[in-house]
Amino acid sequence: MTSPGTVWEKRALARGLYLVATPIGAARDITLRALDILASAEVLAAEDTRTLRHLMEIHGIPLDGRPLVPCHDHNEGEAAGRLVAAVAEGKSVAYASEAGTPLVSDPGFALARAMVAADLPVTAAPGPSAVLCALAVAGLPSDRFLFAGFPPPAQAARRVFLDGLKAVQATLVFYESPRRLPALLSDLADRLGGARDAAICRELTKRFEEVRRGPLDQLAADYADTQVKGEVVVLVNRAAPETTETATWEAALDEAMARMSVKDAAAMVAEAFDLPRRDVYQAALRKGKGD
């Protein structure tokens, strides 16, 4: 039963796995639906059981003797078997990673895949995500992005990894350890080009949130001798469209309009060729009308 003054409701849940997004910083960022699921699920599972217990305590959700199963990188395969069996028996299972959305550079994939393989229901309770939060504040194109996760820690492997992303025409989003941030920025500037715009988002939604924007070479210089603390998301502007020496911006616009909206194609081509966005947009409108 829900106590007076609470914002969550305890209700019967259908059997299945519920993937619950949890705050990446501010505890109040959790959704009401997520609270309902955490209050109602018959079995709880978490990447870090202490973190989930603390979150539930903040919002006044009692454990009430329900099982709380650890499910992290080191035991996910074993834990998945136990949780699949629980759902197969007709129970509702809520899974939460330590922060953010499960499966996004967090455990949960093996668990969700095991449920799908067993033909059992999987439901997402969406909410906080460091990827989307960073994309919203970075000031870089958001119509198309590629989440590339954590780059390899070794420099040789990292450079090969970045070379494979050099021509991607989408905003690139990386997670990185604060201690490896200077090395990553140096390699990004070297492999992708120091003139590319980028953003460093640190401690998003937390007390010391910081967003720094600028070309890669400038950011690499700024962070070269800086000790960084906290969670870091790095975003890099998309590659300019590939063109030949004889190609014109009109040809690039035709190519871009074949796979993007008029507005986004015009913005990308105007940026790539350093042209007035209004002029390119008007040309795109004419092309769209068959002129």
Describe the protein's topology.
Blueprint: E1 16-20, H1 32-40, E2 43-46, H2 49-58, E3 68-70, H3 76-88, E4 92-96, H4 109-117, E5 122-125, H5 130-138, E6 145-149, H6 155-163, E7 171-176, H7 181-192, E8 197-202, E9 210-215, H8 216-223, E10 232-236, H9 249-257, H10 262-273, H11 277-288
Parallel strand pairs: 1-4, 1-5, 2-3, 2-4, 6-7
Antiparallel strand pairs: 7-10, 8-9, 8-10
Helix pairs in contact: 3-4, 6-7, 7-8, 9-10, 9-11, 10-11
What's the helix-strand series?
Answer: EHEHEHEHEHEHEHEEHEHHH
Fraction in helix: 25-40%
CATH topology of the largest domain: Cobalt-precorrin-4 Transmethylase, domain 1
Question: How many helices does DSSP assign?
Answer: 11
Ends distance: 66 Å
CATH class of the largest domain: Alpha Beta
- Estimated radius of gyration: 23 Å
Characterise the protein shown here.
This protein is an alpha/beta fold. The chain has three domains: 16-128, Tetrapyrrole methylase, N-terminal domain (Cobalt-precorrin-4 Transmethylase, domain 1, 3-Layer(aba) Sandwich), CATH 3.40.1010; 131-236, Methyltransferase, Cobalt-precorrin-4 Transmethylase, Domain 2 (2-Layer Sandwich); 249-288. Helix content is 38%, strand content 17%. It is built from eleven helices and ten strands. The strands form two sheets. A five-stranded parallel beta sheet has the order 3-2-4-1-5, with helices on both faces. Strands 6-7-10-8-9 form a five-stranded mixed beta sheet. α2 links the parallel β2 (43-46) and β3. The longest helix is centred in the N-terminal third of the chain and has 13 residues, at 76-88. The chain is globular and about 65 Å long.
